[in-house]
Amino acid sequence: MKIIFLSVSVFVMLFFQACATKPVDVKWTITYPTYPEEPKILYLNTYRGGSKPDTSTALDLFLGEATRDNKSMNIVKPYGVGLQDGKVYVADSGSDIVFVIDEKTRDLNFIGDGMRGRLASPVGIAFGKDKTIYVSDSRLKTINGYDPQGNLKFMLGGRLEFNHPTGIAVDKNQNRLYVVDTKGHMFKAYDIATKKHLYSVGKRGVGDAEFNFPTNIAVDQRNGNIVIVDTQNFRIQIFDKDGKFVSRFGSIGDKPGTFARPKGVGIDSDGNIYVADSAFNNIQIFDEKGQNLLLYFGSAGYTEGRFRLVTGLYIDETDKIIIADGFSGRVQTFQYISEKWKQKNPVRYKELKEFEKEPMSIKAPEPKKSKE
Q1: d(CA 343, CA 337)
Q2: What is the DSSP string of 1-64?
Q3: Is the distance from CB of 171 to CB of 224 less than 8 angstroms?
Q4: Within 10 A of 243 (CB to CB), how many other CB atoms are there?
Q5: Partner residues linked to 307 by β-bridges
Q6: Residue 10 has what pLDDT?
Q7: Cα separation of 302 and 278, whole Å?
Q8: Model confidence at 351, in pLDDT bands (50, 70, 90)?
Q9: How would you list the strands of the sheet with 122-127, edge to edge?
Q10: Which residues contact 19 (CB under 8 A, 6 or more apart)?
Q11: Taking Cα atoms as reference points, which of 146, 145, 179, 175 lies closest to residue 161?
């Protein structure tokens, strides 16, 4: 298998105003891979929480008296992430709440900070077809369901049901909720309508359908396949919608295609599997069977497109990717440039291709001539 080493391409476009005395607007565009390769991943935005510094102290947080308005709070330790209806959801285990950030306005709201439905250690996030927001809490050992306004609808589980619930995912076609129980070395399936437990898969081990501290999960909405990150076995396991083992891929290593500390996982509309590795600080993209490494992007750093202790990962129906950058206290969004995206965004794609081709050859418009 041919593995191509790929690096970030950062291009600077200068838009000059008609009058030379006006300030220059500089726009950064980050794509993967570099020109002349066809761009596949486009960097979009970075979110850190509120727009002004948070003045709350650690004691305030402990006593539940922190100032949580729409401008002040900043993300501390993000893990689970998600996107729904133009809002970025971030499970922050550092402040024990879920941030809800509007992509356009950057307005900030929270889930799990009220008296009812208060969270203790949020980890995973998933969304139902009725817009219900599911949040796993590893300390309370529950899965909480909230409406879009942040009101608690129900709680599933407890100490008799889970040892340490972490990653969660929803199959919107089957109307099923899947929960990874990390310390139980298994995952469980539930019918969303009845909250009935359907089946459990796994025990501690190294064989097929056995796990060693699994963490995250994603569902292929095309066929219902379930993808589990078997973290301390340094591999990915794939199951069908009924929990039957299908295949596995990956091994421990320090070269492309292997894993050191796999965490987040997501699946795009073409079935490609994205795996975030917190040791490599990058995202590796495999084909739907995991047999071929297609691309990887990211490296250690604090600038856009780089990561420090990358953790959670989520891909929505439009192939927008959100990634939790744990140590940096931020999340970053990207776009998978699929054929479907190209068809829906022909002008943007054409601009991107031209921008990649000759990033510094954009000519400034001629100054307007005086009418005198």
Answers
A1: 10
A2: --------EEEEEEE--SSTTSPPEEEEEEEES-TTSPP-EEEEEEE-B-SS-----HHHHHHT
A3: yes
A4: 17
A5: 300
A6: 37
A7: 14
A8: confident
A9: 122-127, 133-137, 142-146, 152-157
A10: 367
A11: 179
Distance from C-alpha of 343 to C-alpha of 328, rounded to nearest angstrom: 35
* Contact indicator for 319, 338 with CB cutoff of 8 Å: yes
Segment 1-55, tens digit of pLDDT: 433 434 334 333 322 233 333 333 334 578 898 777 888 999 999 999 975 444 5
Nearest to 298 by CA among 306, 289, 290: 306
**What 3-state DSSP class applies to 339?**
helix
Distance CA 186, CA 191 (A): 17
Eight-class DSSP state of 208: T
Q: Residue 351: helix, strand or coil by DSSP?
A: helix
Please give the torsion angle defined by the CA atoms of residues 307, 327, 136 and 251, in that order, rounded to the nearest 10 degrees.
50
Give me Rg for the CA atoms of the chain.
Answer: 22
- For the stretch 255-310, pLDDT in tens is 999 999 999 999 999 999 999 999 999 999 999 999 999 999 999 999 999 999 99
Alpha-carbon distance of 166 to 1, in angstroms, equals 34
b/e 227-237 (16+ beta carbons within 10 angstroms → b): bbbbbbbbbbb
Q: In what order do the strands lie in the sheet with 245-249?
A: 217-219, 226-230, 235-239, 245-249
Cβ-contact 120, 140 below 8 angstroms: yes
CA distance 31 to 357: 12
Long-range contacts of 102-107 (CB under 8 A, 24+ apart): 103/45, 103/333, 106/47, 106/51, 107/70
